Backbone:
């Protein structure tokens, strides 16, 4: 069987994506390269039959606008993974530049208990839906519509059920790049000549 056929077999296998037998890329070098990919920082929250949980995540991506679909990659070893799957819902809270302390707390720094994390970030709970982090730039509340297990992480697809946009449209986002927190600035307005 040719390499392309083997690759296609792997992609079409469904469920877990098999490790690539030919990849000789070192895991540390891979992580180092990916540290150069600037990414917005979010807190993913969930609530439901399994209870409340939250985690800081930058592996978040828009997938489709019809239906409105996003994905988030969650470590299979982290408790959040099981909570989200059991609840069937999650909310993406996009953090603002002045919310680094919240990002660090939901990434486990300071070892703050889960219930206390939600109190400290001023989370607003809407019935049994996932809590919304106060003053987040935007929040997208989703129902899980698909899960794909890939190595250490679950790629979790969600269709948006509700959206909340922060009041201050000029608020800059919190960004993670080369293992440090940053924010963004406009270099040149759209259409403006150099
Ligand atoms: C900036 C940043 C981005 C992160 N992105 C992700 C991610 O996309 N997916 C993930 O599973 N973990 C991600 N993590 C790691 C988790 O936040 C961390 O392992 C987890 O919260 C452990 O803390 P806890 O067990 O105290 O909750 C990220 C951490 C940081 C600091």
Residues:
């Amino acid at each position: 069987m040719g390499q392309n056929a083997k690759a296609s077999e792997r992609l079409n296998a469904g469920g877990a994506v098999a490790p690539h037998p030919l990849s000789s890329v070192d895991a540390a070098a891979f992580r180092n390269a990916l540290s150069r990919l600037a990414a917005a920082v979010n807190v993913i929250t969930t609530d439901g039959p399994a209870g409340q949980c939250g985690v800081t995540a930058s592996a978040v991506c828009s997938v489709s606008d019809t239906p409105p679909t996003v994905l988030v990659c969650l470590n299979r070893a982290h408790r959040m993974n099981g909570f989200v799957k059991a609840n069937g819902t999650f909310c993406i809270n996009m953090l603002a530049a002045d919310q680094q302390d919240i990002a660090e707390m939901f990434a486990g720094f300071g070892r703050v208990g889960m219930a206390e994390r939600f109190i400290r970030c001023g989370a607003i709970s809407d019935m049994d839906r996932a809590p919304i982090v106060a003053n987040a730039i935007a929040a997208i509340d989703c129902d899980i519509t698909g899960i794909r297990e890939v190595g250490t992480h679950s790629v979790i697809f969600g269709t948006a059920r509700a959206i909340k946009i922060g009041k201050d449209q000029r608020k800059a986002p919190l960004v993670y790049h080369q293992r440090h927190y940053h924010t963004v600035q406009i270099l040149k307005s759209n259409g403006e000549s150099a």
Summary: DSSP finds five helices and ten strands in the chain. The domain at 39-182 is CATH 2.30.110.10 (Pnp Oxidase; Chain A). The longest strand covers residues 138-150.
